[in-house]
């Protein structure tokens, strides 16, 4: 096992001196970056600024115990730490401020995130994994306060898993589970539920995790005393402190942000507890200052009194560090040794200013060069149109008067020029149009790529393998199909694990995992507490470290608890790093028709709208669900798979090739052919739609039934439009609220697939009522669309066009 930092501090005085001065130098460079960054915002060269000034010393101390293979999950004030582990340069810091879209110049997000959001690149250009044990890792930051905490739990738990689990390639993700996950959070954000849920889970699971709380006494302008039950978070957490002999709880260390030796000692101890004993640790860093206030959006002088401001000036970490260096002396072999003189430190201060300024200048010149090159390639082409329309010259004049020009200004000019010269067919206009299409494709990649995987492992590339049946294939309960398929999955993929409420010991609430824990162990088939947000977080973190987790959210309604993490973190990680990181997590849940307000919801539109970036798969039975699991475990994208809650006891024929057959994503299935109307649906509603279609046949209406199967991606081959072309009528049916998922489906069919051209009647949607479903079978009947509802409403379409053949029912 690696030794910890505290065990390796046998160094010469000269090495000690060099380390101290290097820390001081790096701290000063970071501070100058903060000062200069604020100026860049106030002069209009950058849009917004939020900086890490005041937190330099604790972050330098934290960086000393951060090893290759370790991960950080934090928020947007950790620039000194990122500098210290070589995950950030002065140039890339300012490139992010200017929103430079170059991955080479701004590798954290390629200009997609505002400043202070750091990330290392876990993936090669082709989407394959790098060796994460050979680098220091930062999981991509997000802004939502405490939103980084659930993911932190999974990053830490991965180390626990890797102590026991090995698979081909696992050496790229862990060295015997020796890695620590480091989290950072502002003190006021500990008032968020995600913080408490994560720390509670970490204390129960006993994972190697260090959480640093930067306590500057305020949450923006609100003092700490108004944030929580106790102003002192360490005091509040005292009940979490582990006791001797117990395998629960955490260690709590409180340390001052300006006390350099104490900070080194605190983080050395924290590393020892986490790395050696696999114990979560809270490092509560108090007396933190914010020399420039919360952000460039406001001034802290508005809410801090003169006494507080004076205290912050006196206890500024870098000022106290300088004081400590100048007061330090030691006698070695009869000679008094000091670290540095005042003049030497002042020289470092001046050097830091020059380094920060040079980095800022380089970043700005690179950004401006990219814009200038775009102008040079396009402006002459626009000018060539001046003779074709007088408005073009006006647009050029307005463009030239702009003091600062961005890419949007160039594109605005081109589009106005093309609009003004519409209807003109000239070589000059055609040349401009060609150039516009060329640069538009580049900017589409800059701003809109990598929402979904672009690698060879993207789900759309997974080969379809159909279920195989034989005379010996049995009719079994649906839950047996999914259970036996999971058995094959866990045997085939040692990196796969599943966890959730009731998932382990009893084999999930519907027995779809019956016997799996006994066979594969409690580490891989695990029960969790009732804490959906961190169940999701466990999955995100472990997926970012090369495992293939399946996070089970017991019911679809409960997904709402973790929707924030799905939306802000999981759905965006590949996009916000421009393909630099991925988290191929599978979310397993079950839902739709049951009974009662809290267990029969269908919040699909919310999931669709808020989670673009996650595949949304809605199988109609458990065989289809099993096929989707088999597909997604070969893919590198996150997905939510919604199993039909009323399907576990329904009979299905069990395929002979369990664990092998796949269901393709983005492909519909025509389950009943017809010629008069196309009925489009998914999930549990499919059974009722099929019943309605059979009833309509008796009334002389031939209905084609289509199971969407995959909402995201949606019908990639546009097969639904082909069905509408044949039937000339379209009905979309589901159990979401009015205008919910049916609205999305209509937009895809009518607008993207252009199926409106084939309609002889208005398209019809049949959805649930807008309220939650009432209890019991009668509640389901009157709350959600029934067979009667479907038959009557679809029949009415035909009554409208041919009342003689289809006389009115009512």
TrEMBL record:
<keyword id="KW-0614">Plasmid</keyword>
<dbReference type="InterPro" id="IPR033248">
    <property type="entry name" value="Transketolase_C"/>
</dbReference>
<dbReference type="GO" id="GO:0016624">
    <property type="term" value="F:oxidoreductase activity, acting on the aldehyde or oxo group of donors, disulfide as acceptor"/>
</dbReference>
<dbReference type="Pfam" id="PF02779">
    <property type="entry name" value="Transket_pyr"/>
</dbReference>
<dbReference type="InterPro" id="IPR001017">
    <property type="entry name" value="DH_E1"/>
</dbReference>
<feature type="domain" description="Transketolase-like pyrimidine-binding">
    <location>
        <begin position="476"/>
        <end position="650"/>
    </location>
</feature>
<comment type="function">
    <text>E1 component of the 2-oxoglutarate dehydrogenase (OGDH) complex which catalyzes the decarboxylation of 2-oxoglutarate, the first step in the conversion of 2-oxoglutarate to succinyl-CoA and CO(2).</text>
</comment>
<protein>
    <submittedName>
        <fullName>Transketolase</fullName>
    </submittedName>
</protein>
<dbReference type="InterPro" id="IPR005475">
    <property type="entry name" value="Transketolase-like_Pyr-bd"/>
</dbReference>
<dbReference type="InterPro" id="IPR029061">
    <property type="entry name" value="THDP-binding"/>
</dbReference>
<dbReference type="InterPro" id="IPR009014">
    <property type="entry name" value="Transketo_C/PFOR_II"/>
</dbReference>
<dbReference type="Pfam" id="PF00676">
    <property type="entry name" value="E1_dh"/>
</dbReference>
<dbReference type="Pfam" id="PF02780">
    <property type="entry name" value="Transketolase_C"/>
</dbReference>
<keyword id="KW-0560">Oxidoreductase</keyword>
<keyword id="KW-0786">Thiamine pyrophosphate</keyword>
């Amino acid at each position: 096992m690696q030794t910890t930092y505290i065990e390796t501090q046998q160094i010469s005085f000269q090495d000690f001196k060099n380390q101290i001065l290097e820390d001081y130098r790096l701290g000063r460079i970071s501070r100058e970056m903060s000062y200069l960054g604020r100026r860049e915002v106030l002069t209009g060269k950058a849009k917004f600024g939020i900086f890490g000034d005041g937190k330099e010393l604790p972050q330098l101390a934290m960086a000393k115990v951060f090893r290759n293979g370790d991960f950080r999950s934090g928020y947007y004030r950790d620039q000194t730490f990122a500098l210290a582990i070589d995950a950030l340069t002065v140039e890339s810091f300012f490139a992010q401020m200017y929103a430079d879209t170059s991955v080479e110049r701004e590798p954290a997000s390629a200009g997609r995130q505002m400043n202070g959001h750091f990330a290392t690149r876990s993936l090669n250009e082709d989407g394959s994994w790098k060796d994460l044990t050979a680098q220091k890792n930062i999981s991509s930051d997000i802004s939502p306060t405490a939103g980084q905490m659930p993911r932190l739990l999974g990053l830490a738990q991965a180390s626990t898993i890797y102590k026991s689990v090995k698979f081909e390639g696992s050496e790229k993700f862990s060295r015997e589970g020796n890695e620590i996950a480091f989290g950072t959070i502002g003190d006021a954000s500990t008032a968020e539920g995600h913080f408490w849920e994560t720390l509670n889970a970490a204390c129960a699971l006993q994972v190697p995790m260090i959480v640093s709380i930067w306590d500057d006494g305020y949450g923006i302008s609100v003092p700490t005393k108004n944030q929580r039950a106790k102003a002192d978070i360490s005091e509040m957490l005292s009940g979490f402190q582990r006791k001797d002999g117990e395998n629960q709880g955490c260690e709590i260390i409180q340390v001052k942000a300006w006390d350099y030796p104490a900070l080194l000692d605190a983080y050395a101890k924290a590393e020892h507890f986490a790395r050696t004993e696999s114990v979560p640790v809270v490092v509560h860093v108090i007396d933190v200052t914010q020399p420039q206030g919360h952000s460039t959006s406001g001034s802290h002088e508005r809410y801090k009194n003169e006494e507080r401001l004076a205290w912050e000036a006196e206890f500024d970490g870098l000022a106290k560090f300088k004081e400590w260096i100048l007061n330090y002396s030691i006698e070695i072999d009869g000679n008094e040794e000091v670290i540095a003189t005042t003049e030497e430190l002042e020289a470092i201060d001046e050097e830091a200013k020059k380094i920060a300024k040079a980095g800022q200048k380089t970043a700005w010149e690179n950004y401006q060069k990219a814009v200038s090159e775009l102008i040079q390639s396009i402006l002459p082409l626009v000018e060539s149109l001046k003779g074709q329309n007088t408005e073009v010259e006006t647009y050029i004049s307005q463009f030239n008067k702009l003091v600062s020009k961005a890419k949007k200004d160039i594109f605005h000019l081109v589009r106005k020029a093309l609009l003004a010269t519409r209807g003109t067919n000239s070589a000059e206009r055609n040349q401009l149009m060609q150039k516009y299409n060329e640069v538009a494709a580049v900017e589409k990649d800059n701003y809109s790529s990598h929402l979904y995987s672009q690698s060879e492992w993207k789900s759309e590339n997974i080969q379809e393998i159909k279920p195989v049946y034989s005379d010996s294939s049995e009719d079994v309960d649906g839950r047996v199909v999914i259970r036996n398929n999971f058995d094959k999955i866990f045997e085939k993929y040692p990196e796969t694990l599943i966890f959730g409420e009731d998932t382990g010991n009893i084999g999930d609430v519907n027995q779809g995992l019956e016997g799996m824990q006994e066979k594969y162990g409690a580490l891989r088939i695990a029960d969790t507490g009732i804490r959906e947000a961190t169940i999701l977080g466990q999955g995100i973190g472990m997926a970012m470290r090369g495992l293939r987790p399946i996070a089970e959210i017991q019911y679809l309604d409960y997904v709402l608890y973790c929707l924030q993490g799905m939306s802000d973190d999981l759905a965006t990680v590949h996009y916000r790093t421009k393909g630099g990181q991925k988290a191929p997590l599978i979310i397993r849940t079950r839902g739709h028709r049951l009974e009662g307000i809290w267990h029969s919801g269908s919040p699909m539109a919310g999931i669709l709208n808020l989670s673009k970036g996650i595949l949304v798969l809605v199988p109609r039975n458990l065989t289809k669900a099993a096929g989707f699991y088999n597909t997604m475990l070969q893919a590198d994208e996150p997905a939510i798979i919604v199993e039909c809650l009323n399907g576990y006891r329904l009979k299905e024929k069990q395929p002979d090739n369990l664990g092998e057959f796949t269901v393709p994503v983005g492909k519909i299935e025509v389950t009943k052919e017809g010629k008069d109307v196309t009925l489009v649906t998914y999930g549990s509603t499919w059974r009722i739609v099929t019943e309605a279609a059979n009833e309509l046949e008796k009334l002389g209406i031939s209905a084609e039934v289509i199971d969407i199967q995959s909402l995201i991606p949606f019908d990639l081959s546009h097969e639904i439009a082909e069905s509408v072309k044949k039937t000339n009528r379209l009905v979309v049916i589901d159990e979401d609220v009015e205008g919910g998922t049916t609205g999305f489906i209509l937009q895809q069919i009518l607008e993207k697939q252009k199926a409106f051209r084939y309609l002889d009647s208005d398209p019809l949607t049949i959805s649930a009522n807008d309220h939650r479903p009432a209890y019991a079978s009668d509640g389901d009947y009157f709350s959600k669309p029934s067979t009667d509802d479907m038959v009557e409403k679809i029949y009415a379409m035909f009554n409208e066009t041919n009342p003689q053949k289809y006389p009115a029912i009512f």
